[in-house]
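=== RUN LOG ===
request id: a7f3
mode: sequence -> structure
chains: 1
length: 142
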Amino acid sequence: MAQTAAKQPRPETAKKSHGTFCWNELMTRDVERVKRFYESTIGWSFQAMPMADGGTYWVAMLDGKPAAGIFSLNAPGYDGVPESWMSYLAVDDVDARVEKALKAGAKLMKAAFDVPDVGRIAILMQPGGAGVGWMTPLPRST
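=== RESULT ===
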């Protein structure tokens, strides 16, 4: 079952280089059902990570390492958003890259924001309609 760690789990993103996928996140309306599914089929365990809005972000763990995230769509503002996996690309400067993306025809779905101990993230809709997250990860501490 889920447990809260004293030190927050951190997505393994900073070792990824610019332009490579660095994180995957499942957006769902039934977090507990999804956690049970992946625990019984893949062997994931879960750690809670408090979010600034008071919600909980769940980090799926495998062999003691972060594997993916689970985000609840039950908060205001997510009506009509389908349950799906969101992939995140590592980028060297999310703000500068978003500016380029907008000029190239992307739409900004969620303006860049900071996630403590993780990095700076923006959510885009690329031309054609697919959603993608762009993240400038914080340097890893060793």
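=== NOTES ===
The mean pLDDT is 88.
Strands lie at 21-28, 45-50, 56-62, 65-72, 84-90, 107-115, 119-125, 131-137.
=== END ===
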